[in-house]
Structure formats: structure tokens, C-alpha cells
Amino acid sequence: MNHWTDVCAFDAIDDEDVLRFDHAGKTYAVYRVEDRVYATDGLCSHEKIHLADGLVMDHVIECPKHNGRFDIRNGQALGAPVCVNLRTWRARVHEGRIQIQPEES
Description:
The protein is mainly beta. It is 0% helix and 43% strand. The protein has a single domain (5-100), classed as Rieske [2Fe-2S] iron-sulphur domain (Rieske Iron-sulfur Protein, 3-layer Sandwich), CATH 2.102.10.
């Protein structure tokens, strides 16, 4: 059964921003957009670059290396050079803290 894992305080991530979160040997990208939180795999599916170094605009993360773009709500790759979707993870705000349900080891 998946459990919720604490990431950080809600206000530690600015609106339209992303934070790298490493947990149990895996890297996640955690986003805040319009006071909602989202989580995806933390590495671009194109060349395994950390998405937390990218740019968030609306609900899209742009990879910093080749400008590949993904919809953070569902992980959908939005065009070349990326063609493989990101995996998404459940995220929530609980008592002022962002939590995700990460992949179980």
C-alpha cells in the first residue's frame, strides 16, 4: 500500500515553480501551480536531465537541455524532442506540507 511522504512546506515552492525531491533512490519533480501541487518523474524522458532546473509556465515544465515540454498534470510529452510521457504521482497539501505518494521500493 502506498503511503504519503513529506516533501516540504507548501510555501517552500513559489507559484509556477518546481522542486527536486530525491527519495529512496528515485528523483521526483514537485510543482506548485495556482495553489495546487503536482508530482512527476524528476528526470526528462529524453536525456535524463533534472526537470527541477527547467522552467514552469502554466501547467507545463520545459526541460532545460533541449526545451522538451511536458504537461505536469498528466505527464504528457508535448512534442519533439520528447516523445515518451513522464510518470505522474499523487500529490497533496496536508497541514501546510506538500506530500506525494512515491514509487514503492
